[in-house]
Amino acid sequence: MSRRPFTTAEALGRLRAACDGAGGQRAWARRHGVSQTHVSQVLSGNKRFSPLLAACLGLEGEMVWRPAEARP
Question: DSSP for 5-64?
């Protein structure tokens, strides 16, 4: 597996694909011990992609900091 960082969009794509492969959000959530509501909220953009969901997908996250753009 590549160690290239994923964008949030790519991680969400993996979550969608995993849910589809499991037969839906509810089935995937049950299998991984998370709530279907949380999965739905993340996929709809109402909550941020969480470290818990990342771990369920075999991903790990890290926070990246970069210099802010100069303000006028």
Answer: PPPHHHHHHHHHHHHHHHTSHHHHHHHHT--HHHHHHHHTTSSPPPHHHHHHTT------
Tell me how many degrees the CA angle 51-54-56 measures, rounded to the nearest 5.
115
The Cα 22–Cα 58 span in angstroms is 15
Task: Answer yes or no: is pLDDT of 70 > 60.
Answer: yes
The dihedrals phi and psi of 24, each to the nearest 5 degrees, come to 130, 170
Q: Give the angle 13-18-23 at the CA atoms, nearest 5°.
A: 130
Q: pTM of the prediction? A: 0.79
Angle of CA points 46, 61, 14, to nearest 5°: 60
